[in-house]
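hiii, so i know i said id send this last week but things got crazy w the move. better late than never?? heres the sequnce for the chain we talked about at the cafe, plus the structure i predicted for it. fair warning i was half asleep when i ran it
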Amino acid sequence: MKPFGVDISSYQGRSIDYTLMKQNTKFVAVRAGISWGYEDPVFAQSWRALKGHNRIAYHVLYPSQDVTRQVNWLFDILSRTGFDPETDRLAIDIELWQGQTPQRVTEATTQMYDQITERTGREPIVYSGAWFTNSRMVISEKLKQVDWWLATYPAKGSAPGTEHPGPPLLPRGVTKWLIHQTSETGIGRNFGLPSGAIDTNRWNGTLEDVQAYFGLTEQEPVDPPTDPNQPLYSVKITTTPPNRYITYNAPNGVRWNEERWLQSGDIVPVWEESGHWLRIDALPRWINGSFMQWVKRVDTPQPPVAEVMYYGATYWQRDPRWRDKPLGTKSTIGANGCAMTCVAIALGKLGVFVNPVSLNDWLTNNEGYYQNGNLILWQSVERMNPAVKWDGMTYAPSDDLIKQRIRAGKLPIIVVDFDEHTPQEDMHWVIGIGVDRANNIIIHDPWDNVVGRFRDKYAKSVIRLCTYSKRS
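okay and structure toks below
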C-alpha cells in the first residue's frame, strides 16, 4: 500500500488527538490560511502539535486577489507558528476560479508557485483536481512538471472510509502525480477526531520516498555518539570561590584543557555521558562528574510563560548538519557563526526563510563578509532581500530598549561577554526572542541551543545590539 496521510483544517475542530494522528499517518497537511487576512483558527494548534512529523502547510489561493499579498500573508502565518524550510513543505490549494479567466487562474498559480520557491528554495506542491484544471486553467509546460496533489474520490454512495484505488484523474497534459486525495469521508476517530469525517491521501511512492521528500534522509553522518538538538541536562559548578573546576579534552582525566576552567556558579549543559565523565562542549571538553559536592545536576530550564514570544525556527550554530562548514573564508559555522546564525533567525521573523547554510552561502558569494573573512556586513542582507532594512547598531542599550524592540516585532541581535569571569570581553552574539510575564528578556543562544532568561545567563551590561525590520 502507498504511504497514507490526512489533511485537516478548522472543519475538524480543535479536539484532536495528535498522538493518534501521527501514529496512524506518514504525513499530514494542515490548512494555514485563505487569500490574505484569514488564518485558519486551528492552524497554529495543529502545526505545533505535529512538529517532528512530516508536515505540509497548504494555503488557499484567490486568483482574483494580489498574489504577493497572499504569499506575504502565508509567510507571516508561518513566522508566528514556526516553519522549518529544511523539513516542512508548502502547498498551494487551487480550486477557486472566482469568475477569472483560465489564463488569470494559471497566472496567479504560477506567480504563487514562483514566489514560494524563491523564498524557501523548494518548490511547493499544487493541490487541485482534473475537474477544476481542465475547465478553469491552462496547463503550461511549467505546471506539467510540478508536484501535483490531486483529488479523485470513490463513487457516490460508497461506504464511509472507502478510498478511490487510484491513480487519480490527471489534468490534461500532466503525466505524473505526487499525492492522491482518495476520499473526503475518512473515519475521523481512527485519526484522532472524536467524530466526523476526514480527507485521506496516498503518496505515490515508498515510505523512503516520503522521508526523502521531507528531507529526513540526507543528514550528514557524525561521529558517535551523535549530538542531540538539546542537552541531556545541565550541571552547576559549586566549588568555593575563587576555586575553579578543571576541564579535560578527553573522558579520562589525562589531558586537561588549559583554555577553559569553569567558575563557581557556572551552569553548563551536558551533551554526553561516558561513565562518570560528562561532555559539556562540542570541541570536546569534559568534566569529572564523580565529585558530587562540586558538580550538582540541575534541570535544563524550560521556556517560561511569555507575554510575547517568537515561536518560529531557531538554529543551533553547532548543529551536526552544518557546524563544520566554512564560515565565509575563515573558521567554521560551529566555531564562530553565532552572529550569522542569529541573523538567520531574525530574518525568519520577517518572513525571509533562510538557514545558517543558505545564508552563509549567500554572504560568502556576495561580499557579505568583511574583506572576504567571516565578520558579517550587517547591511549586506538588504541586497539579498530589498524588503528587509537593517536598523543600524545601538551601543550600550538598556534592557528596556531590548524589550521595546521585541514588543515591536523585531528580534534584537545582542553581543554579550561570553565568559564574564575573565577581564577581557569575549564577544558572542545571542538573539532576543521574547519577554516573559515577569518582564524578563528571553533569549535563544546559538552556542548551546538553549532558550532562557537573558540575565540568568549573562549578567553584565550589553555591549551593543542591532535589529532588522521590514521596509514600509
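btw The chain is about 25% helix and 25% strand. thought thatd interest u
miss u guys!!
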